[in-house]
Amino acid sequence: MKRIFLIYIWFYAASMMAQTAYKEFKPGQLWLDDKGNHINAHGGGFLYYNDTYYWFGEHKESGKMGHKALVGVHVYSSKDLYNWKDEGVALAMANDTTSMLQKECLLERPKVIYNKKTKKFVMWFHHELKDQGYKAALTGVAVSDNVTGPYRYISSFRLHPNVWASNFTVAQQQNVTLATKEGVEKKQKKIDGVIMCRDFESGQMSRDMNLFVDEDEQAYHITASEENQTLIISKLSDDYLSMTDEYVRVFPGEANEAPAIFKKDGKYFMFSSYTTGWKPNPGRLAVSDNMMSGWKALENPCRGNELERKTTFHSQSTYVIPVVGKKDAYIFVGDRWISDNLKDSRYIWLPVQFKNGLPFLKWNDSWNLDFFDK
Ligand code: DGJ
């Protein structure tokens, strides 16, 4: 009798699992993990390691407190990109109130990369100090021997104190100095480089950020700087744990947030957004042959009706996943933020499509990886 009961339980559990196993992506819907909870990894980043995908993101709590980091960076694993196993908290917020990483600070857009030489997993994230809103504008770094953590927090800092961007010329610096002397910048805020000059000694601001590792293993840190007006791209050190002094300004004064880079056929593409807080805005796309120069803005990559184009399908970019084992297969990952309950924010995954070598996005209620075989 007991045996029959156990067999019944086993069949019941197996059939439940079969029912809940996802076989497709449904952008914007609740997405349950192996424990039946909506995946809690917002502003996420992805790493493929040992035949497994890892999804790192902001763990959010319900309601208004969800705006603060109370738990840390959540990590999930998956073999197929549809079904995700909860692997717990990779980087935990500190209980120690003297720590910069104490609970109730802000921790956004965590990204993890693997360093083949040191065999360490390195996490970078946007970090704001407790009770200071978005004023501190720091980038933070943590490290682990294991992909799912625990990650050890190292430090948070502003970028490149006392170092000029390599594409910020002496003439530009003099222009700002002159404008400042004449008090022009008060009337005409748009003088290029005013904020870079203001922050020269203390270091440049870093808010929405991302990482990109090139085929030669060089890693780059891409971030919204200068009061979110200008992107900064910096080369990381060989061990990925710090910055080199090499950095450039990209799209000065054009207010890009949420950068997400991928590479196809030798070209770098960057999805990004405008700056409208938690509200969505029109998607942006840029291309370059070189990470450190020559970035050119392209048109809005979203195809669809006006609302879809104006709101990037009601989402904001956070990452582009290269699908392993499929040719030219990239997934655009965005967050559909729900600002009064960030925990409930949804994920917008869409296949990146190409026309004449340029990426574009189209809405799809449900789709699977076979899409890339067509
Ligand atoms: C937009 C950013 O992309 C998000 O990560 C977050 O910082 C919000 N702004 C806050 O308003």
Describe the structure.
The structure is a single chain. The protein is mainly beta and 374 residues long. The chain has a domain at 32-157: Glycosyl hydrolase domain, family 43 (Tachylectin-2, Chain A), CATH 2.115.10. The protein is built from five helices and 22 strands. The chain has helices spanning 2-20, 170-181, 184-187, 194-198, 306-311, and strands at 42-49, 52-58, 72-78, 85-92, 106-115, 120-128, 138-144, 152-157, 209-213, 219-225, 230-236, 243-250, 257-264, 267-273, 284-288, 296-298, 302-303, 316-322, 330-336, 346-351, 353-355, 358-362. The strands form six sheets. A four-stranded antiparallel β-sheet has the order 1-2-3-4, with no helix packed on it. The radius of gyration is 21 Å and the shape is globular. It starts with a helix and ends in a 12-residue tail after the last strand. The site of (2R,3S,4R,5S)-2-(hydroxymethyl)piperidine-3,4,5-triol (DGJ) has 9 residues, from strand 5 and strand 13.
Brief rundown of the structure:
The protein has 374 residues and is mainly β. It has helices at 2-20, 170-181, 184-187, 194-198, 306-311, and strands at residues 42-49, 52-58, 72-78, 85-92, 106-115, 120-128, 138-144, 152-157, 209-213, 219-225, 230-236, 243-250, 257-264, 267-273, 284-288, 296-298, 302-303, 316-322, 330-336, 346-351, 353-355, 358-362. The longest helix has 19 residues, at 2-20.
